[in-house]
Specification:
The chain is α+β, with helices and mostly antiparallel strands. It has 10 helices and 13 strands. The structure holds cobalt (II) ion (CO) (3 copies). One cobalt (II) ion binds next to α1.
Length: 313
Protein backbone atom coordinates (compact mmCIF):
# COMPACT_ATOMS: atom_id res chain seq x y z
CA UNK A 1 0.00 0.00 0.00
CA UNK A 2 1.35 3.38 -1.03
CA UNK A 3 0.14 6.17 1.20
CA UNK A 4 1.84 9.44 0.17
CA UNK A 5 1.42 10.83 3.68
CA UNK A 6 3.58 8.09 5.21
CA UNK A 7 6.89 9.95 5.03
CA UNK A 8 9.00 7.61 7.16
CA UNK A 9 7.97 3.96 7.19
CA UNK A 10 9.58 0.53 7.55
CA UNK A 11 11.85 0.68 4.55
CA UNK A 12 15.02 2.01 6.22
CA UNK A 13 14.41 0.58 9.71
CA UNK A 14 14.18 4.09 11.06
CA UNK A 15 13.34 4.68 14.68
CA UNK A 16 9.70 5.59 14.36
CA UNK A 17 6.99 6.03 11.77
CA UNK A 18 6.15 9.54 10.61
CA UNK A 19 2.82 10.44 9.04
CA UNK A 20 2.11 13.81 7.46
CA UNK A 21 -1.09 15.52 8.60
CA UNK A 22 -0.60 18.85 6.84
CA UNK A 23 2.12 20.88 5.11
CA UNK A 24 3.63 21.91 8.44
CA UNK A 25 2.65 19.09 10.79
CA UNK A 26 3.48 15.39 10.98
CA UNK A 27 2.81 12.82 13.69
CA UNK A 28 5.56 10.49 14.98
CA UNK A 29 4.48 7.10 16.33
CA UNK A 30 6.60 4.58 18.17
CA UNK A 31 6.22 1.71 20.65
CA UNK A 32 8.68 -0.22 22.84
CA UNK A 33 8.26 -2.66 25.73
CA UNK A 34 10.33 -5.31 27.49
CA UNK A 35 10.87 -7.46 30.57
CA UNK A 36 12.53 -5.92 33.67
CA UNK A 37 16.23 -5.16 33.33
CA UNK A 38 16.84 -3.86 36.84
CA UNK A 39 15.40 -5.19 40.12
CA UNK A 40 13.95 -1.90 41.34
CA UNK A 41 10.42 -1.51 39.87
CA UNK A 42 10.39 2.30 40.09
CA UNK A 43 13.64 2.56 38.14
CA UNK A 44 12.48 -0.07 35.65
CA UNK A 45 9.42 2.11 34.95
CA UNK A 46 11.60 5.16 34.38
CA UNK A 47 13.94 3.26 32.05
CA UNK A 48 11.06 1.84 30.00
CA UNK A 49 9.62 5.33 29.51
CA UNK A 50 12.99 6.93 28.67
CA UNK A 51 13.58 4.12 26.18
CA UNK A 52 10.16 4.51 24.51
CA UNK A 53 10.49 8.30 24.25
CA UNK A 54 13.98 8.02 22.76
CA UNK A 55 12.87 7.29 19.19
CA UNK A 56 10.95 10.58 19.08
CA UNK A 57 14.00 12.51 20.33
CA UNK A 58 16.26 10.73 17.81
CA UNK A 59 14.12 12.08 14.97
CA UNK A 60 14.16 15.60 16.38
CA UNK A 61 10.50 15.50 17.37
CA UNK A 62 8.53 16.58 20.42
CA UNK A 63 6.66 13.86 22.35
CA UNK A 64 3.07 14.79 23.25
CA UNK A 65 1.10 11.78 24.50
CA UNK A 66 1.78 8.26 25.77
CA UNK A 67 -0.09 5.02 26.47
CA UNK A 68 1.03 2.31 28.89
CA UNK A 69 1.44 -1.32 27.80
CA UNK A 70 1.41 -3.69 30.77
CA UNK A 71 1.76 -7.46 31.21
CA UNK A 72 1.60 -8.52 34.86
CA UNK A 73 1.18 -11.79 36.86
CA UNK A 74 -1.61 -10.38 39.00
CA UNK A 75 -2.39 -13.70 40.75
CA UNK A 76 1.13 -14.34 41.98
CA UNK A 77 2.79 -10.97 42.37
CA UNK A 78 2.23 -8.03 44.71
CA UNK A 79 0.28 -5.28 42.96
CA UNK A 80 2.54 -2.72 44.70
CA UNK A 81 5.30 -3.73 42.28
CA UNK A 82 3.12 -2.76 39.34
CA UNK A 83 2.19 0.52 41.01
CA UNK A 84 5.88 1.35 41.41
CA UNK A 85 6.63 0.54 37.75
CA UNK A 86 3.79 2.80 36.61
CA UNK A 87 4.88 5.55 38.99
CA UNK A 88 8.38 5.42 37.46
CA UNK A 89 6.94 5.62 33.95
CA UNK A 90 4.69 8.53 34.87
CA UNK A 91 7.46 10.50 36.56
CA UNK A 92 9.63 10.13 33.45
CA UNK A 93 6.75 11.24 31.23
CA UNK A 94 6.32 14.33 33.42
CA UNK A 95 10.00 15.13 33.02
CA UNK A 96 9.48 14.80 29.25
CA UNK A 97 6.36 17.01 29.42
CA UNK A 98 4.39 14.17 27.84
CA UNK A 99 0.79 13.39 28.86
CA UNK A 100 -0.31 9.86 29.73
CA UNK A 101 -3.66 9.35 28.00
CA UNK A 102 -4.41 5.69 28.71
CA UNK A 103 -3.10 2.20 28.27
CA UNK A 104 -3.88 -1.49 28.29
CA UNK A 105 -2.93 -4.31 30.63
CA UNK A 106 -3.20 -8.09 30.46
CA UNK A 107 -2.38 -10.94 32.82
CA UNK A 108 0.84 -12.68 31.90
CA UNK A 109 3.31 -15.05 33.57
CA UNK A 110 6.08 -12.43 33.56
CA UNK A 111 6.20 -8.65 33.87
CA UNK A 112 6.51 -6.61 30.70
CA UNK A 113 6.17 -2.87 30.52
CA UNK A 114 6.56 -0.21 27.90
CA UNK A 115 4.76 2.60 26.17
CA UNK A 116 3.55 3.80 22.85
CA UNK A 117 4.42 7.43 22.23
CA UNK A 118 2.97 10.00 19.88
CA UNK A 119 4.96 13.07 18.99
CA UNK A 120 4.93 15.87 16.48
CA UNK A 121 7.44 17.31 14.05
CA UNK A 122 7.59 19.61 11.02
CA UNK A 123 7.56 17.34 7.92
CA UNK A 124 10.64 19.10 6.50
CA UNK A 125 12.67 18.86 9.71
CA UNK A 126 12.72 15.12 10.31
CA UNK A 127 16.13 13.69 11.17
CA UNK A 128 16.43 10.18 9.79
CA UNK A 129 19.23 7.64 10.18
CA UNK A 130 20.24 7.98 6.51
CA UNK A 131 21.09 11.68 6.10
CA UNK A 132 24.79 11.64 7.05
CA UNK A 133 27.24 13.51 4.77
CA UNK A 134 30.92 13.01 3.93
CA UNK A 135 32.93 15.20 6.31
CA UNK A 136 30.47 14.78 9.18
CA UNK A 137 31.74 13.91 12.63
CA UNK A 138 30.02 11.14 14.63
CA UNK A 139 29.06 11.92 18.22
CA UNK A 140 27.76 9.38 20.76
CA UNK A 141 25.98 10.82 23.82
CA UNK A 142 25.95 7.89 26.31
CA UNK A 143 28.57 5.24 27.18
CA UNK A 144 28.07 1.70 25.84
CA UNK A 145 27.91 -1.54 27.80
CA UNK A 146 24.41 -1.57 29.29
CA UNK A 147 23.68 -5.02 27.83
CA UNK A 148 26.78 -6.55 29.41
CA UNK A 149 26.08 -4.94 32.79
CA UNK A 150 22.40 -5.94 32.69
CA UNK A 151 23.54 -9.52 32.09
CA UNK A 152 25.81 -9.25 35.14
CA UNK A 153 22.87 -7.86 37.16
CA UNK A 154 20.68 -10.83 36.14
CA UNK A 155 23.49 -13.20 37.14
CA UNK A 156 23.91 -11.47 40.51
CA UNK A 157 27.50 -10.55 39.57
CA UNK A 158 27.26 -6.77 39.23
CA UNK A 159 28.50 -4.46 41.98
CA UNK A 160 26.30 -1.64 43.33
CA UNK A 161 28.39 1.07 41.72
CA UNK A 162 27.96 -0.47 38.27
CA UNK A 163 24.23 -1.02 38.86
CA UNK A 164 23.69 2.60 39.91
CA UNK A 165 25.69 4.05 37.03
CA UNK A 166 24.01 2.00 34.34
CA UNK A 167 20.52 2.46 35.85
CA UNK A 168 20.92 6.22 35.92
CA UNK A 169 22.24 6.28 32.37
CA UNK A 170 19.36 4.17 31.01
CA UNK A 171 16.80 6.34 32.84
CA UNK A 172 18.28 9.54 31.41
CA UNK A 173 16.10 11.06 28.70
CA UNK A 174 17.68 11.80 25.33
CA UNK A 175 15.71 15.05 25.44
CA UNK A 176 18.60 17.37 26.33
CA UNK A 177 20.87 15.81 23.70
CA UNK A 178 18.09 16.15 21.13
CA UNK A 179 17.44 19.82 21.97
CA UNK A 180 21.18 20.53 21.64
CA UNK A 181 21.42 18.96 18.18
CA UNK A 182 18.28 20.76 17.01
CA UNK A 183 19.72 24.13 18.03
CA UNK A 184 22.92 23.40 16.10
CA UNK A 185 21.47 21.70 13.02
CA UNK A 186 22.82 18.20 12.24
CA UNK A 187 22.68 15.80 9.28
CA UNK A 188 21.37 12.57 10.77
CA UNK A 189 20.61 10.88 14.05
CA UNK A 190 19.55 7.57 15.53
CA UNK A 191 19.43 6.16 19.04
CA UNK A 192 21.55 3.15 19.99
CA UNK A 193 19.36 0.28 21.17
CA UNK A 194 19.10 -3.46 20.53
CA UNK A 195 21.30 -3.67 17.44
CA UNK A 196 24.26 -2.15 19.29
CA UNK A 197 26.54 0.61 17.98
CA UNK A 198 27.65 -1.34 14.90
CA UNK A 199 24.12 -2.47 13.99
CA UNK A 200 22.76 1.06 14.11
CA UNK A 201 25.77 2.41 12.17
CA UNK A 202 25.16 -0.20 9.49
CA UNK A 203 21.62 1.15 9.09
CA UNK A 204 23.09 4.62 8.55
CA UNK A 205 25.49 3.58 5.76
CA UNK A 206 23.43 0.97 3.91
CA UNK A 207 22.56 1.95 0.32
CA UNK A 208 24.30 5.26 0.87
CA UNK A 209 27.18 6.93 -0.90
CA UNK A 210 29.60 6.95 2.02
CA UNK A 211 31.23 4.89 4.74
CA UNK A 212 32.19 5.52 8.34
CA UNK A 213 35.41 5.23 10.31
CA UNK A 214 35.18 4.53 14.05
CA UNK A 215 38.13 5.23 16.35
CA UNK A 216 37.49 2.38 18.76
CA UNK A 217 39.72 3.78 21.51
CA UNK A 218 37.50 6.89 21.63
CA UNK A 219 34.21 5.04 22.06
CA UNK A 220 32.92 5.67 25.62
CA UNK A 221 31.90 2.64 27.70
CA UNK A 222 31.27 1.75 31.35
CA UNK A 223 34.51 0.44 32.87
CA UNK A 224 32.63 -2.43 34.51
CA UNK A 225 31.40 -3.55 31.08
CA UNK A 226 35.01 -4.30 30.17
CA UNK A 227 35.50 -6.30 33.37
CA UNK A 228 32.27 -8.32 32.96
CA UNK A 229 32.83 -8.91 29.23
CA UNK A 230 36.27 -10.32 30.05
CA UNK A 231 34.52 -12.74 32.44
CA UNK A 232 32.28 -13.83 29.57
CA UNK A 233 29.11 -12.10 30.76
CA UNK A 234 27.32 -11.23 27.57
CA UNK A 235 23.73 -11.07 26.43
CA UNK A 236 22.60 -13.42 23.65
CA UNK A 237 21.93 -10.31 21.57
CA UNK A 238 25.68 -9.64 21.26
CA UNK A 239 26.20 -12.91 19.42
CA UNK A 240 23.20 -12.25 17.17
CA UNK A 241 24.46 -8.73 16.42
CA UNK A 242 27.96 -10.01 15.60
CA UNK A 243 26.56 -12.69 13.34
CA UNK A 244 24.31 -10.30 11.48
CA UNK A 245 26.24 -7.02 11.33
CA UNK A 246 29.91 -8.10 11.05
CA UNK A 247 29.59 -8.24 7.27
CA UNK A 248 29.61 -4.40 7.13
CA UNK A 249 32.77 -4.09 9.21
CA UNK A 250 36.45 -3.77 8.18
CA UNK A 251 38.94 -4.15 11.01
CA UNK A 252 42.21 -2.39 10.18
CA UNK A 253 44.17 -2.95 13.37
CA UNK A 254 44.00 -5.66 16.03
CA UNK A 255 41.78 -4.86 19.01
CA UNK A 256 41.13 -6.63 22.30
CA UNK A 257 38.06 -8.92 22.21
CA UNK A 258 36.22 -6.90 24.88
CA UNK A 259 36.14 -3.87 22.52
CA UNK A 260 34.29 -5.88 19.92
CA UNK A 261 31.92 -7.19 22.64
CA UNK A 262 31.13 -3.57 23.58
CA UNK A 263 30.70 -2.35 19.99
CA UNK A 264 28.11 -5.08 19.30
CA UNK A 265 26.50 -4.92 22.76
CA UNK A 266 22.70 -4.41 22.57
CA UNK A 267 21.78 -1.24 24.47
CA UNK A 268 18.68 -0.44 26.46
CA UNK A 269 17.79 3.24 26.31
CA UNK A 270 21.19 4.02 24.79
CA UNK A 271 22.39 7.44 23.69
CA UNK A 272 21.95 9.33 20.46
CA UNK A 273 24.41 8.82 17.62
CA UNK A 274 24.58 12.19 15.89
CA UNK A 275 26.16 12.89 12.51
CA UNK A 276 27.14 16.57 12.56
CA UNK A 277 29.00 18.67 9.94
CA UNK A 278 32.66 18.98 10.98
CA UNK A 279 32.52 22.78 11.28
CA UNK A 280 29.61 22.56 13.74
CA UNK A 281 30.98 19.97 16.14
CA UNK A 282 32.43 22.51 18.60
CA UNK A 283 29.12 24.36 18.81
CA UNK A 284 27.34 21.05 19.34
CA UNK A 285 29.65 20.17 22.24
CA UNK A 286 29.06 23.57 23.83
CA UNK A 287 25.30 23.00 23.67
CA UNK A 288 25.58 19.44 24.95
CA UNK A 289 27.66 20.63 27.94
CA UNK A 290 25.22 23.46 28.61
CA UNK A 291 22.39 20.86 28.62
CA UNK A 292 24.28 18.59 31.06
CA UNK A 293 25.04 15.90 28.48
CA UNK A 294 28.49 15.26 29.88
CA UNK A 295 29.42 11.81 28.55
CA UNK A 296 29.24 12.71 24.86
CA UNK A 297 32.28 11.80 22.76
CA UNK A 298 33.46 12.09 19.16
CA UNK A 299 33.86 8.51 17.96
CA UNK A 300 34.45 8.78 14.21
CA UNK A 301 33.78 10.40 10.85
CA UNK A 302 31.78 9.93 7.69
CA UNK A 303 34.14 9.13 4.79
CA UNK A 304 33.77 8.92 1.00
CA UNK A 305 35.48 5.56 0.62
CA UNK A 306 34.99 2.71 1.22
CA UNK A 307 31.27 3.17 0.64
CA UNK A 308 28.81 1.24 2.79
CA UNK A 309 31.60 0.04 5.11
CA UNK A 310 32.29 0.62 8.78
CA UNK A 311 36.05 0.86 9.25
CA UNK A 312 37.22 0.10 12.79
CA UNK A 313 40.55 1.72 13.64
CO1 LIG B 1 15.50 3.81 17.92
CO1 LIG C 1 12.42 1.70 19.18
CO1 LIG D 1 -7.84 -1.87 25.97
Amino acid sequence: MDDPNLIVGFERSDDAGVYKLSEDLAIIQTVDFFTPIVDDPYWFGQIAAANALSDVYAMGGTPLTAMNLVCFPIKTMDIEILKEILRGGLDKLKEAETTLVGGHSIEDSEIKYGLSINGIIHPNKILTNSGAKVGDVLVLTKPLGTGIINTAIKGGMANDKAINKVTESMATLNKNASLAMLEVGVSACTDITGFGLIGHLSEMIRENDFGMVIHTQKVPYFQEAREYAQKGLMPAGTFRNKEFFSKWVDITSPMPPFISDILFDPQTSGGLLISVPGDKVDVLFNRLKKNNVNDAAIIGEVIKEPKERIVLK
